[in-house]
Amino acid sequence: MTEAWHKVLACVARSLTPLVAALALIASVCAGSAQERSRLDEVLQRGSLIVVTLGTVPPFAFKDDKGELVGFDIDVARLAANALFRDPNKIEFVVVTSDGRWPAIESGRADMGVGGTTVYPDRAIRVAFTRAFIDSGISIMVAKSAGIKSLQDLNQEKYTVANLNNPQMADRAAALFPKAKIITFDTPSGEFLAVKSGRAHALQIDTPTADYFAATSATDFEVLPTLLTASQNNAIYLKPGDFKWWLWLDTFVSELRTGSLYPKYAEIYQKWFKKDPPPQKFYLSPAR
Amino acid sequence: MGQYRAWLEAYGTAYLEAAAWTLSLAVLSFIAALIWGAVLFFLRLSGGTWVARSVDAYVQVLRNTPVLLPIYLIYFGFPLLGVLWPAAVCGGVALVLQNGAYICEIFRGGYKAIEWVQHDAAKSLGLLPWTHFRKVTLPQILVHSIPALGNQAVLLLKDTSLLSAITVIELTMQSKVLTERTGTAYAPFLVAAVFYLAMVWALEVLTQLALRSVRWR
Amino acid sequence: MAMTLSDLWVMTQAASLSLLLALASIALGTALALLLTPLAFAPWAIARMLYRLFIFVVRGTPVLLLALLIFYALAAFWGRISPYTAGVIVLTLYLAALFAEVFRGGVLAIPRPLWDCCKSLGLPRLSILRRVVGPLVARYTLPPYLNVCVMAVKASSVLSIISVWELTLASREIIERTLDVYRVLAVAAILYFLMCFAIDRLGRRLEIRLAARGFAGERL
């Protein structure tokens, strides 16, 4: 009897060893990956998404007349929260001025950022971007009464163009109308005031913003039909070095524009820009 | 450290230019504001009730409203009346108007330290109001207000950063341009801070010199 | 698009936040300054040097950078803190430096004969502070002190970089949506004026009560 017991025990012991070893291995792997915790895990554990954004860039992210934060980028961020937690309200927005975006991301105060932020190579050295969730571009707006009809008209020394403080506009101006004088403001309202007061004759502005203003607050302005750039990528930005988090966000954007979330994307695109988004695939017709 | 060296090489000249703008705007505006503040205070002292009241109203309005408003009005509003000054001039005038009001208030504080006897003496000598002001009041209030004026000079220097809203490329605007271009969190502002600190240090040295060179009664 | 009454309500709410931030920072800043100014006159050189260093760094650095550094440094140590708390801390430090210099100017303005009198009377230190230095400094420094208080209300506008929502940011948001620049700025100016003017008037009342005989003060 004792002999049999010994045999059984030895058997069990022998089979336990690999099991214990396997458990130890799994435990060490878990411990190891816990040390390289991704932002994604942190977000999932927290149960809400923290997004840094601007509040002064219509129609991407701005405050309505009740002081509520609204805009296309805000809705995209809510779709991300929905994808993570099935609830578009499990989200917290940190509203800063444009210089405050980068410290918020770098310090980890926010998980990700939106707000009309364009991908630019110089920036990409320090900030990680997903693929674009909307194609933007730069247009020129002129006062209807000014009589400027094209870019060639603008390229004369007597004209002054108001720019925003961003590198794309500076580069475009140098390339496309070098003869005109340039003055740089840090907000679109400064640009509009400059044209209204006669200090400038035209202004460069993001195409969606131009369309928004032409329809609402700047009806005495018109948008010149030429697009100044091919396309600009407005994207979600995040702290570089966290592949897992970047991969999820990039997958989310990819699904928004070309995959399962396209209907929702088309819905918010219609809401803010009053037109259909580019089709999911080139061989498919647009949303409807 | 190497990162900062690369920065300085690439953007050093731009920063120096911006710093030159900041410094010249601050110095010129401060001198003009001192003169304007002294004139305002003189009017307040010797102008009669209505003049004194209007000076008081002017001082109150300009002290208690954000300086961005006069800056915007002069830069964007004046052209509609046909007055088209360059951006730096518009900003400078706005800064002078506001800081003149602050300096008038500082002088009011320094005035309290002058004994009444001196004013009686000046009157009994038959001095004209302007001479009274120039020879008796002004030197003493200047002396008493040196620390507060030094403070105000530093604040004026920092206020030049508001001119970034009307296209003047001074230090803060330069930092903003670089932050936009490169997405860097702190470096552009830190470099600008070094410049600001250097200028503030110079101002402090000047204030100390001014204090030392005054002989106390 | 013009601004609406709804916008006006939003701006009023933002104004009350600006005011609260300012009042909290003024109170805390004054307390801190009262601790700092004695350092400027301490017999130990190292205390005076520390004072000068503090004033130099806090006054000389742009408040924007101070806000960024302090907010994110505090967050690194204490986890998530509310931007409003950080805002009050930043403004307190900044105002304390300004107040300390104002108080220092007041002490320096006391005429030398008065110091000699105190010495010859053999008054104890505390008595000198309470009966001579205190009242005189209060009288000399009230206008510059009020200057700084008024600045405090407007200084909270730089805190928008660390997501503090207050009147200047609220005005910017409305302006960028409606392009109704002059009207919004005018409303903001009126709101700022009401707040600053109220602080100023309260201060003036105090000034009148402190006015003394033999000094030119009471005529103004």
Please specify the SSE layout and strand pairing.
The complex is a heterotrimer of chains A (288), B (217) and C (220).
Chain A lengths: L1 H34 L3 H8 L2 E5 L2 E2 L3 E3 L5 E2 L1 H14 L5 E5 L5 H6 L5 E2 L7 H4 L3 E9 L1 E6 L7 H4 L5 E5 L2 H10 L4 E5 L2 H10 L4 E5 H9 L5 E3 L8 E7 L4 H16 L3 H12 L15
Parallel strand pairs in A: 1-5, 1-6, 9-10, 9-11
Antiparallel strand pairs in A: 2-3, 3-4, 7-13, 8-11, 8-12
Helix pairs in contact in A: 3-11, 10-11
Chain B lengths: L1 H45 L2 H16 L3 H10 L9 H25 L4 H9 L4 H16 L1 H14 L11 H12 L4 H27 L4
Helix pairs in contact in B: 1-2, 1-4, 1-8, 1-9, 2-4, 3-4, 4-6, 4-7, 7-9, 8-9
Chain C lengths: L4 H36 L4 H16 L2 H16 L4 H26 L3 H10 L3 H31 L11 H12 L2 H30 L10
Detailed description of the structure:
The complex is a heterotrimer of chains A (288), B (217) and C (220). Chain A is 44% helix and 20% strand. Chain A has 288 residues and is of the alpha/beta class. Chain A has two domains: 40-135 and 232-273, D-Maltodextrin-Binding Protein, domain 2 (3-Layer(aba) Sandwich); 138-223, Periplasmic binding protein-like II (D-Maltodextrin-Binding Protein, domain 2, 3-Layer(aba) Sandwich), CATH 3.40.190.10. In chain A, strand 3 and strand 4 form a beta hairpin. In chain A, helix 3 (72-85) packs antiparallel against helix 11 (262-273) and helix 10 (243-258) crosses helix 11. By secondary structure, chain B is mainly α. Chain B has a single domain (2-213), classed as MetI-like fold, CATH 1.10.3720. Helices cover 80% and strands 0% of the residues of chain B. In chain B, helix 1 (2-46) crosses helix 4 (87-111), helix 7 packs antiparallel against helix 9 (187-213) and helix 8 runs antiparallel to helix 9. The longest helix of chain B has 45 residues, at 2-46. The N and C termini of chain B lie far apart (51 Å). The model of chain B has no long low-confidence stretch (mean pLDDT 85). Chain C has a single domain, classed as MetI-like (MetI-like fold, Orthogonal Bundle), CATH 1.10.3720.10. Chain C is built from eight helices and no strands. The N and C termini of chain C lie far apart (46 Å). Chain C has 220 residues and is mainly α. Chain C is globular. The interface between A and C is medium-sized, with 30 and 30 residues.
